[in-house]
């Protein structure tokens, strides 16, 4: 058995929830926020049998796509507002980050 932790962008979460439920993958969702852009994410915890792991990873890959977005990134200094005019920077957002860990033991009570 594997524990899959998937961090998914807010824009992809509803589609991903529907796909997981339809495919019969139970999950626990935890609201989270990205550190760089401070945008909303959801972190999913899924216990998956070894033989279904590739199916799950394929579903995540198919339904969580990256996209480009322009953002203003403010510098972490203490200058008064108005002395720095940020230029929009193109960054890649969305998609999913997935961690797969072996589970030594699993119990349901």
Question: What's the quaternary structure here?
Answer: single chain
Describe the strand arrangement of the main beta sheet, using strand numbers: 2-3-1-6
Helix content: 10-25%
- Give the N-to-C terminal Cα separation: 17 Å
* Poorly predicted sequence stretches spanning 5 or more consecutive residues: none
* Helix-strand pattern: EHEEHEEE
Q: From the helix content, strand content and strand pairing, which structural class follows? A: alpha+beta
- Using the 3D structure, state the CATH architecture: 2-Layer Sandwich
Approximate shape: elongated
Please tell me the total number of domains. Answer: 1
- In the CATH hierarchy, the third-tier topology is known as Alpha-Beta Plaits
**CATH class group:** Alpha Beta
- Strand content of the residues, in percent? 35-45%
- Give the strand tally: 6
- In DSSP terms (H or I, runs of 4 or more residues), the helix count works out at 2
